[in-house]
Amino acid sequence: MIAPEAFFFGRADDALFGLHYAPERTPHREAGVLLSYPMGHEYIVVHRAYRQLSMRLAEQGFHVMRFDYHACGNSSGQCEEGTPDRWTRDIATAIGELRARARCRKITLIGCRLGATLCAMLGAERGDIEHMVLWDPVVNGAAHIAEISDRHDDMLRRTQVAAGATSGTATVRELLGFAVSEAALRQIETIDLLAISEAPAKHVLLVESRTPETTATLRERLDALGSACEMQRFPQPSAWSWIEDPGTVLVPSQLVGSIARWVSEAHQ
Question: Nearest-CA neighbor of 96 among 55, 56, 65, 60?
Fold first, then answer.
């Protein structure tokens, strides 16, 4: 088992937390792999899967890094300070850090949910990403916020709190136990992944565990932009539902293994 190195990077007064998995085999692969998390409760749901995926890829010879965005996890900043604009810049900072650590020019991005969306938007801006994995990306930000709000009300009902109950201030909302600023919500609500005008990467793997009609539309858009797009389906209708005990979340081993194989085969 490959043990990761924990470290902080970026500005000293605004540091981001990262974990670097250095491969034991030589020669190393030509590309590093960067994993970008979802937000809030979905971060917790996917955490173990990301840990397993990181180890598998490192065992296959890749330098792998996963990290926490500003105001998330172990990085600096308060929860309500995070915004998609800042998180996108954090992905760019992490790409630079992984390149420096792994001494590799190519980076493969793997993102899940909103993390996948931010990777796609950044990739479309940069134009230098060859391979990208988008796992259940958020295609429409307004629909995503509406869905999380519904899940939040469902969580309150299960915990015997009146649905619609609120906490926080006029500028901060609580969603599934995480504080989210109104500024962040407004930015998320403007997201429309179908509106990107450039391909996020030359090769894209779309991994879908739900909402096939949305992902199929995104695939059509990516194909039109010139990405060589492949889709894989692993049906899990309740994959992102609120779970009271995150310790009961099972790692989707087939899905994780398929992503690892796709990345490995892409760099043969």
Answer: 65
What is the rounded distance in angstroms from the CA atom of residue 134 to the CA atom of residue 41?
18
Reported confidence tier of residue 122, pLDDT bands at 50, 70, 90: very high
Residue 65's CB: how many other CB atoms inside 10 A?
Answer: 28
Question: Whose structure tokens read 């007064």?
Answer: 13
**pLDDT of 170:** 66
Tokens 């996963």: give the residue.
66
Which of 92, 93, 82, 84 is closest to 9 using CA atoms?
A: 93
Q: 232 and 261 in contact (C-beta within 8 Å)?
A: no
**Per-residue confidence band for 177, with pLDDT thresholds at 50, 70 and 90:** confident
Give the tens place of pLDDT for each residue, 90-115. Answer: 999 999 999 999 999 899 999 999 99
CA–CA distance, 161 with 155 (Å, rounded to integer): 8
Q: How far apart are CA 178 and CA 141, in angstroms?
A: 17
Please tell me the pTM assigned to this model: 0.93
Encoding tokens for residue 203? 């090769």
Token pair, residue 174, equals 């609580």
Helix (H, G, I), strand (E, B) or coil at 16: strand
Largest CA distance in the chain: 58
